[in-house]
Design brief:
Layout: E1 6-11, H1 15-26, E2 31-34, H2 41-46, H3 48-67, H4 81-105, E3 109-111, E4 115-119, E5 122-125, E6 130-138, E7 142-144, H5 158-161, E8 170-174, H6 178-190, E9 193-198, H7 209-221, E10 225-228, E11 232-238, E12 241-246, E13 251-254, E14 256-259, E15 263-265, E16 298-300, H8 311-326, E17 340-342, E18 348-352, H9 355-361, E19 364-372, H10 374-379, E20 384-392, E21 398-404, H11 408-420, H12 425-430
Helix pairs in contact: 1-8, 3-4, 3-6
């Protein structure tokens, strides 16, 4: 290793890259990292963190409205988009600074410019400097996918949605996954007239069918117009706004159009061809269970590998890489029973198998309930909570837990521990309920559900 400038060079200072760099440095490795945007990556700068802040903002309108049912008289509220954007920017700047400071404390050298492979053991920075490294880790994440349609350049992506100079009174959002639905819910909650266009007949492909139906109903109640089984065919300028034409013949005018139709691994311009690092047809870097590419000295973690594209997974992969390569502690990331949330309102939290996935493996028992939360009894809000437990009929093991409702993400994080440990339905049943809470329903469901 001493023959190289550094032991490890990381390309990309997002969640996975930063974790790998810090842990490797903690093992005594000489580490450098390059980032051409802002330290913290998608999650901190234009993903999870600002998204959740905007979700909080979007829910205050509900809180003001609900307060009346509990005896509060709340003056008419006003909302400042500019104030929210400024507050968000202040917070992500603080977090980005913390990430950079943590790298510095760990002894990692930060290069604030783009880097690309120039060989199996070398990278070239944007200023022309070449740095040799015993090991190279690529952690450049992903980027929004564009659409091959006329006028696509007139649309925004999730990157720009956080910093629009003016709040869109009307917005068309294309997509049916996490990002599209979360922004639809956020903008609707803040007061926009939202139209969501999705080519599928249901939103949230891959989620449990009951969850998909519940989310669609929740979005409609929030005022989102769902246009399903249709796609945008063309976007055109219309004064200061946009005019959308769909393949089914609809014409919609709006202040903004947002494309949230997927993300792609950010591998362009990385110099992969200089070392023949293998990629998939979609451009994802192919790696083995130890995050190693077909080039022995080059590794990759996070969304750039297009495995499970979640920030905590990228962090876990980065940590496992450093433990394995520099800590002499071989570690393989387990990708089963990963909890995930969709921050629509009401929000979604799930872990484990869907009912359909479980039925493909064998006979299952289903326990589910849909009820009005206690808070809604006084607020009068027409909002339900859905809870569903999928159980292996032969072993009684809980295979999946699915929740739609307030604080679903908080509940599912804890339920994930039980699912990961192999808890049975009997274990759930023997757990004393915490009353009064919505979560107690998870341990009081006794009657198997049968189709009517």
């Amino acid at each position: 290793m001493a023959d190289y400038d550094v032991d490890l060079f990381v390309i990309g200072a997002g969640s996975g890259g930063v974790r790998a760099a810090r842990i490797a440095a903690g093992y005594g490795a000489r580490v450098a990292i390059a980032e051409d945007f802002r330290v913290g990556g998608t999650c901190v700068i234009r993903g999870c963190v600002p998204k959740k802040l905007y979700v909080y903002a979007s829910r205050f309108a509900d809180a003001f409205e609900d307060a009346a049912g509990f005896g509060w008289t709340v003056p008419e509220a006003t909302f400042s988009w500019e104030g929210l954007v400024a507050a968000k920017e202040k917070e992500i700047t603080r977090l980005s600074g913390l990430y950079a400071a943590n790298l510095d404390r760990a002894g990692v050298t930060l290069h604030r410019q783009r880097a690309a492979l120039s060989g199996p053991n070398a990278v070239r920075l944007a200023d022309g400097t070449e740095i040799t490294a015993g090991t190279i880790l690529i952690a450049t994440g992903g980027a929004p996918v564009g659409a091959d349609i006329p006028g696509a350049e007139l649309a925004i992506s999730s990157n720009e949605a956080f910093d629009l100079p003016r709040f869109p009174e009307t917005i068309v959002i294309a997509g049916g996954g996490y990002i599209a639905l979360e922004f639809a819910s956020v903008f609707a909650g803040l007061g926009s007239k939202v139209t969501l266009i999705h080519r599928g007949d249901k939103v949230l492909r891959g989620f449990d069918e009951d969850v998909r139906d519940e989310v669609a109903e929740g979005l409609r109640k929030r005022g989102v117009e769902l246009v399903l089984s249709d796609e945008i065919a063309e976007i055109a300028a219309a004064g200061e706004g946009r005019r959308v034409a769909t393949k089914a013949g609809r014409v919609i005018e709006a202040d903004q159009v947002m494309l949230a139709i997927g993300r792609t691994p950010a591998t362009a311009g990385l110099g992969l061809e200089t070392t023949n690092v293998m990629t998939s047809h979609a451009g994802a870097i192919l790696v083995d269970v130890n995050n190693r590419t077909n080039v022995a000295s080059v590794y990759a973690v996070g969304d750039v590998t297009d495995r499970v594209n979640l920030t905590p997974v990228a962090i876990r992969e980065g940590h496992a890489f450093a433990d394995t390569v520099f800590g002499n502690r071989p570690t393989v990331v387990a990708y089963d029973a990963i909890p995930t949330a969709v921050f629509v309102t009401p929000e979604v939290g799930v872990v484990g198998l869907t009912e359909a996935q479980a039925r493909e493996k064998g006979e299952v028992d289903i326990y589910k309930t849909r009820f009005r939360a206690m808070k809604a009894t006084l607020s009068g809000r027409d909002e339900k909570v859905l809870m569903k437990i999928v159980v292996d009929a032969a072993t009684d093991r809980v295979l999946g837990v699915h929740v739609v409702g307030e604080a679903a993400a908080e509940m599912i994080q804890l339920a994930a521990i039980a699912v990961r440990m192999g808890a049975t339905k009997a274990d759930f049943d023997q757990t004393v309920a915490l009353h009064p809470s919505a979560a107690e329903e998870l341990v009081t469901l006794r009657t198997k559900w049968t189709p009517s």
